[in-house]
Amino acid sequence: MTHTRHGFPVAECLLLLVAAFWGTSYGLSKQALVFYPVMGFIAIRFLATFFTLLPVLVREYRAGGARDWRVGLPTGLILLSVFICETFGVLHTTAANAAFLISLCVLFTPFTEWLVLHQRPSFENVVLAGVSFVGVGLLTTGSDVTLNIGDLLILCAAVLRALMVTVTRKVTTGKRISTLSLTGIQSGVVGVGALAVLALSDPAALVQLPMDVSFWLIVVYLVLFCTVFAFFAQNFGARNIAPTRVSLLMGTEPAFGALFAVWWLGEQVALSGWVGGCLIIFSALYSMVPRTPRGVVATGLN
Hints:
74% helix
């Protein structure tokens, strides 16, 4: 299966939507963490996602699919690590810093692709990743980006995101598992893992759920748009296009985050920040230009 249908870049456009939704998630997550601990917030978000997708999992399991835990378990554990680092990072740094720094996964992905898949990234992808990195630098110009513990955790999450994209492609190639099933299994692994950590670290929080309506509205939004849709689209993209291109598209996230911050939070972005955002978006859009396929076409189910 190619990543286009009738010449339209389906996977790439879905990933751009994911970047837009994820660009809003940092500020919203920071607001939700006022009401509930990090591990509890992660557990609620991903267990809600798991139960939303449970009918799909049951149907596909009965049909003979969704049984390969060798795919869902390792990628789910990596995803759990991503969100532990990312959510604790958001708690200890600004939402803007988080959006800027997480996009460094664009720079890390060619190296994880080389390490895991033994595929040297193309010169073009390396150049585009470099342009995106320059864009991130311009976005942070004039911002108070200091490497505190929150920033370091976000950097760890960026490395893990790059690893997640690459490992997903490696372990799903030739496997009989749909993208929705994979998303559901991964969400279950993340939700149960976070719940276990919460039970060990703060058992009182298990029975002290937040009562604020805004918390639950944020959870619903994050589950439907930033988790169910986002991880379906990310898994679809990871299975059908090169990992470095996936990260280039996801690298538009800080630009969308800046737009959201200006529109919703009233933050100010310097001219250099808008230039950086344009560079990131340019890199992503350029990567979407149709090209003659080289090498083996990625396989996968949709």
